[in-house]
Every structure is written in C-alpha cells, then in structure tokens.
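ok so heres the complex, two chains, lmk if somethin looks off
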Amino acid sequence: LAKTTQPISMDSYEGQEVNITCSHNNIATNDYITWYQQFPSQGPRFIIQGYKTKVTNEVASLFIPADRKSSTLSLPRVSLSDTAVYYCLVENGFNKFYFGSGTKLNVKP
Amino acid sequence: SAVISQKPSRDICQRGTSLTIQCQVDSQVTMMFWYRQQPGQSLTLIATANQGSEATYESGFVIDKFPISRPNLTFSTLTVSNMSPEDSSIYLCSVRASGTEAFFGQGTRLTVV
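and the predicted structre for the whole thing:
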C-alpha cells in the first residue's frame, strides 16, 4: 500500500499555472500514478494517469521523474472553476485503491 | 466510461434505523467499491463488493454494520445499519474495469438525527 503525501492546500489566481507535487516514496514497480479531481457535492473524477516521464492531455500534464518517488500535476492557466480538491493515488489499476488527504486548490479572481 | 446512478441522493434518518443505498451502473464492470467521505475529509474505502460472494471489508468496517450485496455485474447495495449520528456522511459507489480509471457516483448524503 503506497502512501502519498501532498500539500493540504494551495492558493492561486486565475490565469496562473498551478503545480501540485505528490510524494510516493514506496511506489511499487507495477504502480501507476493517478490524479482525481473532486468538486463539492460530487464524486471524484479522473484527470490523468502516468507511469514515467511526462503525460499530457487536454486538462493537465503529469511529470514523473526517473525514480518515480514523486510526481507533479500541472494545471495550465487555471480558472475559478478549477477550485477543487485534487487527489494523488498510486495503484496498479487492477485492484482496490485508497485516497490520501488530497490538496484543496483555491483559485482566486 | 461508466455512468453510475446512486440512490437516494440524500436522506435524513432517525438513529437506530437502517438505510439501503443503491448503485446502478450502465455497463458491466468487474470491480465495485463503496467509500465513505465524512465532512471535509478524504474518501475512506469501506469494502469491495464482490459479485456472487461476500464483500471484502476494510479494517474498521464490519458486515453487520455495513452489509453489502452485489447480485450481478451492474448493481450493488450498501446498507448502513442501526445508524447513529456518527454515521452521518457521504457514501459513494465506485466502479472500474480492470486496468482502467475508476468512476464514481454522485454520492448519498446521509444525516442521522
């Protein structure tokens, strides 16, 4: 069971790039790094997943160094609607999975 | 992708009673899970709902308190039994197919008075 550590909260302003770092020192060889976003009164929603190096989709980028002991979720040019809790998970995609404490991102006008 | 319908969306219940929450998925999925999310907190895994067999519970959760059924690959129920105010929480159903992302229902907001 890989444990993740993230900042509890972050503040940003509209239009800025936001980088949220997650530490996962005990990640297993077959684990992927997955990020979920949760708005109030909704279930979490998948954002992005990666194994190593860099992954980019229409929403975010995920940077993973060679040792895979950490990862950084990058949200380009955030807007007020990006205010949410972001969870970093390490899991292999085939079993149950656990959530860490998450990072509460507050985007200000 | 998978679309999850969770019912009820919210309820207010008297202590000592039980509530059954339903989770219906629009496609067959291999894995279904139940989570609890207390106000302002992260999600805590309650159990894995196994099709055709008893659910697998996480530490701190027991079948007598949270009986779970999963009669087929698209449906599961979670019952919160003999409720107390400490059970007030959001309960979420999650599903995934092997090797893919997980999908979540909107949750059931339970208040016990």
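quick notes: Strands of chain A lie at 9-13, 18-23, 32-38, 45-50, 53-56, 61-64, 70-75, 84-91, 103-108. thats all i got rn
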